[in-house]
Amino acid sequence: xxxxxxxxxxxxxxxxxxxxxxxxxxxxxxxxxxxxxxxxxxxxxxxxxxxxxxxxxxxxxxxxxxxxxxxxxxxxxxxxxxxxxxxxxxxxxxxxxxxxxxxxxxxxxxxxxxxxxxxxxxxxxxxxxxxxxxxxxxxxxxxxxxxxxxxxxxxxxxxxxxxxxxxxxxxxxxxxxxxxxxxxxxxxxxxxxxxxxxxxxxxxxxxxxxxxxxxxxxxxxxxxxxxxxxxxxxxxxxxxxxxxxxxxxxxxxxxxxxxxxxxxxxxxxxxxxxxxxxxxxxxxxxxxxxxxxxxxxxxxxxxxxxxxxxxxxxxxxxxxxxxxxxxxxxxxxxxxxxxxxxxxxxxxxxxxxxxxxxxxxxxxxxxxxxxxxxxxxxxxxxxxxxxxxxxxxxxxxxxxxxxxxxxxxxxxxxxxxxxxxxxxxxxxxxxxxxxxxxxxxxxxxxxxxxxx
Length: 452
Ligand code: PLZ
Prior knowledge:
Elements: H1 27-39, E1 53-57, E2 60-63, E3 68-71, H2 74-77, H3 86-98, H4 110-121, E4 131-136, H5 139-154, E5 158-162, H6 171-176, E6 194-197, H7 202-205, H8 209-223, E7 229-234, H9 250-260, E8 264-268, E9 292-295, E10 306-311, H10 312-315, H11 331-346, H12 349-370, E11 374-380, E12 383-390, E13 395-396, H13 398-410, E14 413-414, E15 416-418, E16 424-427, H14 435-451
Parallel strand pairs: 3-14, 5-6, 5-7, 7-8, 8-9
Antiparallel strand pairs: 1-2, 2-3, 4-10, 9-10, 11-12, 12-13, 12-16, 15-16
Helix pairs in contact: 3-11, 4-11, 8-9, 12-14, 13-14
The structure holds ligand PLZ.
Ligand PLZ is lined by residues 76, 138-140, 143, 166-169, 235, 239-240, 268, 270-271, 296.
């Protein structure tokens, strides 16, 4: 008997309910977990007890034991249009039947160009004909390429990043990521010419945006020198670092400084982009115009695709052959991405992200009324989080966050933790989730908090 229930080519739409038929994890997940521990290095073992996926879509994930769990993670902000969106599935299926791969640099294809055009049309603050886009595979690869492009455009070397930043796990992006454990410890040496400055974390630093920006700018000017800086790379809402929304005015002030000093301002929208926060790009909320934007995750409905989008004169600074790769902008992924953009635009998913944000915020605020360990509720749209603390002194409550997430998955709700101190629970549901599922999940969260 196969371990996983067989799923047909056209699986029926999944019932959108939370329903447990075994304990979590169930016997099939446990058996697979035993094989995983034997076959896969421990670096990739899940911290909480895993359920193995059989099927997913809408706002649920069905595991190999037939349990239906509410998905508040979207595979870390990836399956924005759902994990088996019919349009994405159809687009991929049609593309792979035509050809799976040619290498864009060998024999180009239209979907890559069309995707570049579509993203140019969505670029904040610039006309589409002033924008170019190049595609890669992972988020880290996009960030690496943004830095290469910025260095080529400026002839400078230094890269400035912020406290609590996450930009990836490759050599360069590991240097750009802030948190040592588990991302950096044991993996030195790190790429040179990466400098970290303080950011804006209103809940903990209590500073207004312009004040926080002044401090970052003075660190850059005194410790690096503006004329050395190729790029400032920042997340408009920090993801892995704890869903930290900078204070109003912070992004604008940094953008302004970059413009004055000829520094390439890179918005890393890998987690916050593609309608997740209620705007197509999270930076739109600030009104600032970045020079480059990195995209990945939500762009291609689960297919591995990332990109750098930005000002034509900056993007064109890298010479022919200077950026690229065998698989970057693979045709199955670009076809999926075009379908994702169609669905987002046709179904008004940015607006839906705002509604989801309102449902989550109201529900979380009601829980917070009875639970002072919820220090802060923050985020925008369907990128929402709570920071758990000791109410006496705001000390991060990481063990509590871990226990709450474990309790939630045991009751059939997938949540993710994050934060430099590990004490943030984040909510990144697919934008196709129903309000009923969200309310059910909030009830589970409330019971988890009161049980611990
Ligand atoms: N930039 C802002 O959020 C990936 C990483 C999870 P890759 N975030 C999830 C983990 O433990 O590795 C991310 C991000 C931002 C860059 C990246 C890197 O994207 O596709 O994981 O390389």
